[in-house]
């Protein structure tokens, strides 16, 4: 039972990280029907910036929580800037191009960013400082859930609630929903669609960077390639839940994280990815538009 | 003009800010040292400024072009070089003869190393042509195409280590295995739309790699299979040099065979069904095309070539391991198809040669080649989305009724 709880907690942690990245995918997809392959790279850049900032701050004598907050903040700002620039360079000129063009452009951008970090920094794994402190009150259940895990769960939950509030109750959220429903119509009623798309990329990047900082400090090492696999998994989660659907992305991420954790714990960790994709295929066979996705009837 | 400079200056500032932590700062967390590389900041600023000016100029040109096309001045635009190569027999024939001569004498002029690289490029030509069927003709996005390539290579590897099968028997088996896996993948995803397809095929590609990596008993895991024999020629003994040359000619024949078959397929009943499916699925099904059969056959035909050429790949390298079959290879083949111009056979061949040979001959810039590769992909999509050589749809070339006659 204890082993089961341990696996569940690690599954939930994985799931919430996937969810943070998957939200970016699903939001972008919902609005411009683009699979933003470079999204995982934004997550990676977020982690790198946090690592660099915390390294510099440690050397200049900062300590503890102030590093965590500053590094996290700067990482988020930079990720947002990268996301914004990415959209402007690689996707905006392709707004009216055929479906495959932006996808190829995204794959190209993903390669570019990976190699940019590789060349500018290092091809090796870098040790990531443990930014999250150990809480005393977590001592009794530390063998099931550590402090870092708790922080990850709470931070992701807060971010998701904030996102929901933003989308449901603010002006820009309303504009985003309008653009998602019908871009032309939204433009006609005076929504600045370009701004909405930029904002979507920025919000997605912010969430991804939060994920990157949390994962870096949880796992303890990063390199330029971490974004690719995380991106693929997060995208899988988004599709699992029904792409374009925000609660769906979170649900899909949790299902994926738990599946992986149980598969790794009870069967074999070598095959966890096989199970992850197996679940995806199974669910798509039964529900071709994902868990919460609406079945779209095509009209002619 | 001044405005352009001002804006480019701002862009340069923005990129200086953007690249600051990654390009300028380098921390060593173990020794607690920070390295400040200020010189990089200067490079970024100059580079961003110049590139921004070029970008602005290119974008303005692009806009002008699309405006001209909108007004209907296409007649004024001269047919591109690619089009002329294909359509004008005066240009087409001599070029073809020269090309054929160069292809035949190529291995005699250069050393084994070059020939070997050329063989690899030809393998990717066939891969590109195969994926062209699935993506270019049938419009089914496949991000895990390399899995079929792996199926072919490992078919030969396993058949050879366990039962001593030779190259020539394994070749068709490899192709058929590829096709079989293509159908097996196609079945569960018949109902899925474009973007769901992307992730499922991507997943399939990763699953294939994971299974190969972890199934020690059959595939020898991450260590790979070594000592795979090169293609034989009626049992003749060959040294490495002549075996490589032989493989080269074999690949040339195979490319010709692939071109012949895919060209015939394109104009066949099933080929037209694929294109119809790509253009509009609903209309196509309404016209009585069997959707399931058409899609499955597109997967099977595409995967067949990958399986076939996978056997050649195993024979060329004499050693295979799972690392030759990553997502990077799938992305590479997909970019060959898209950059070549979806559905265009000549374009795919040129793109495959360029994309495989360019990195090999740019060894001097080897550190930067993947960076350049990514940038080229993005730029191609923005400034030449139709690919190197756009696919020209066959037109009905019957009698045209002249307007005068119609009026009379």
Helix content of chain B: over 70%
Mean pLDDT of chain A: 85
Oligomer: heterodimer
Spatial sequence of strands, sheet with the most strands of chain B = 1-2
CATH topology of chain A: ABC transporter involved in vitamin B12 uptake, BtuC
Computed Rg of chain A: 19 Å
What is the CATH top level name of the largest domain in chain B?
Mainly Alpha
Q: How large a portion of the residues of chain A is in β-strands, by DSSP E?
A: under 5%
Count every helix of chain A, treating DSSP H or I runs of 4 or more residues as helices: 11
SS field, number of helical segments of chain B = 17
Biggest beta sheet summary of chain B: 2 strands, antiparallel
Could you write a compact summary of the structure shown?
With 300 residues, chain A is an all-alpha fold. Helices cover 73% and strands 1% of the residues of chain A. Chain B is mainly alpha-helical.
Describe the structure.
The complex is a heterodimer of chains A (300) and B (408). Chain A is an all-alpha fold. Chain A has a single domain (7-132, 150-278), classed as Orthogonal Bundle (ABC transporter involved in vitamin B12 uptake, BtuC), CATH 1.10.3470. Helices cover 73% and strands 1% of the residues of chain A. In chain A, α1 (2-32) packs antiparallel against α8 (193-219). The model of chain A has no long low-confidence stretch (mean pLDDT 85). Chain B has two domains: 2-71, no CATH class; 111-383, Orthogonal Bundle (ABC transporter involved in vitamin B12 uptake, BtuC). Helices cover 73% and strands 3% of the residues of chain B. In chain B, β1 and β2 form a beta hairpin. In chain B, α3 (81-87) crosses α4, α5 (112-137) runs antiparallel to α13 (291-317) and α6 packs across α7 (167-186). At the A-B interface, α2, α3, α4, β1 and α9 of A face α1, β1, α2, α8 and α14 of B.
């Amino acid at each position: 039972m204890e082993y089961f709880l341990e696996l569940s907690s690690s599954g939930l942690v994985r799931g919430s990280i996937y969810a943070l990245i998957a939200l970016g995918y699903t939001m972008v997809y919902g609005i411009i029907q683009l699979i933003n392959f470079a999204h995982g790279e934004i997550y990676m850049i977020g982690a790198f910036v946090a690592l660099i900032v915390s390294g510099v701050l440690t050397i200049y004598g900062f300590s503890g929580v102030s590093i965590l907050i500053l590094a996290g903040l700067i990482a988020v700002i930079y990720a947002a800037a990268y996301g914004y620039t990415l959209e402007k360079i690689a996707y905006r000129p392709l707004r009216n191009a055929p479906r495959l063009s932006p996808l190829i452009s995204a794959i190209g951008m993903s390669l570019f960013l990976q190699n940019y970090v590789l060349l500018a920094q290092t091809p090796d794994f870098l040790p990531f400082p443990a930014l999250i402190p150990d809480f005393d009150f977590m001592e009794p259940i530390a063998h099931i859930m550590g402090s870092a895990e708790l922080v990850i769960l709470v931070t992701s939950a807060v971010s998701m609630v904030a996102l929901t509030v933003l989308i449901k109750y603010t002006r820009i959220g309303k504009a985003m929903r309008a653009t998602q429903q019908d871009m032309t119509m939204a433009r006609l009623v005076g929504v600045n669609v370009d701004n909405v798309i930029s904002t979507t990329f920025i919000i997605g990047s912010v969430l991804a960077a939060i994920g990157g900082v949390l994962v870096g400090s949880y796992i303890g090492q990063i390199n330029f390639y971490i974004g690719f696999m995380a991106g693929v998994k997060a995208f899988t989660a988004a599709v699992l839940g029904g792409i374009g659907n925000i609660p769906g992305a979170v649900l899909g991420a949790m299902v994926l994280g738990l599946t992986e954790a149980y598969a790794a714990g009870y069967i074999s960790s070598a095959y966890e990815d096989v199970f992850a994709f197996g679940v995806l295929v199974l669910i798509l066979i039964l529900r071709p538009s994902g868990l919460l996705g609406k079945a779209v009837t095509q009209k002619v | 003009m001044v405005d352009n400079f001002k804006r480019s200056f701002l862009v340069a500032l923005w990129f200086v800010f953007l690249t600051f932590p990654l390009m300028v700062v380098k921390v060593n967390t173990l020794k607690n040292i920070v390295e400040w590389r200020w010189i990089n900041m200067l490079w970024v600023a100059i580079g961003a400024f110049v590139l921004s000016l070029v970008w602005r100029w290119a974008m303005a040109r692009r806009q002008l072009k699309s405006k001209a096309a909108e007004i209907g001045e296409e007649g004024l635009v001269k047919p591109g070089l690619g089009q002329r190569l294909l359509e004008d027999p005066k240009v087409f024939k001599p070029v073809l003869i020269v090309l054929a001569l160069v292809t035949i004498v190529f291995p005699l002029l250069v050393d084994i190393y070059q020939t070997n690289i050329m063989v690899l490029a030809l393998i990717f030509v066939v891969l590109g042509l195969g994926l062209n069927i699935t993506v270019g003709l049938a419009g089914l996005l496949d991000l895990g195409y390399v899995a079929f390539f792996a199926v072919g290579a490992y078919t030969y590897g396993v058949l050879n280590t366990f039962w001593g099968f030779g190259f020539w028997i394994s070749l068709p088996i490899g192709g058929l295995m590829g096709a079989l896996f293509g159908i097996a993948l196609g079945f569960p995803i018949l109902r899925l739309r474009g973007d769901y397809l992307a992730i499922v095929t991507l997943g399939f590609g990763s699953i294939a790699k994971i299974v190969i990596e972890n199934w020690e008993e059959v595939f020898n895991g991450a260590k790979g299979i070594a000592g795979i024999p090169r293609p034989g020629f009626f049992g003749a003994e060959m040294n490495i040099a002549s075996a490589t040359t032989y493989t080269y000619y074999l690949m040339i024949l195979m490319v010709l065979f692939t071109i012949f078959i895919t060209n015939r397929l394109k104009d066949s009943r099933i080929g037209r069904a694929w294109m119809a499916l790509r253009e509009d699925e609903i209309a196509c099904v309404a016209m009585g095309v069997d959707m399931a059969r058409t899609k499955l056959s597109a997967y099977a035909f595409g995967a067949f070539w990958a399986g076939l050429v996978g056997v050649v790949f195993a024979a060329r390298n004499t050693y295979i391991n799972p690392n030759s079959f990553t997502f990077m290879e799938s992305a590479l083949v997909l970019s060959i198809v898209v950059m070549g111009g979806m559905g265009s056979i000549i374009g795919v061949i040129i793109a495959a040669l360029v994309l495989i040979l360019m990195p090999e001959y740019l060894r001097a810039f080897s550190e930067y080649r993947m960076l350049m590769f990514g940038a080229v992909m993005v730029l191609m999509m923005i400034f030449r989305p139709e690919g190197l050589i756009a696919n020209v749809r066959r037109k009905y070339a019957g009698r045209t009724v002249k307007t005068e006659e119609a009026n009379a």
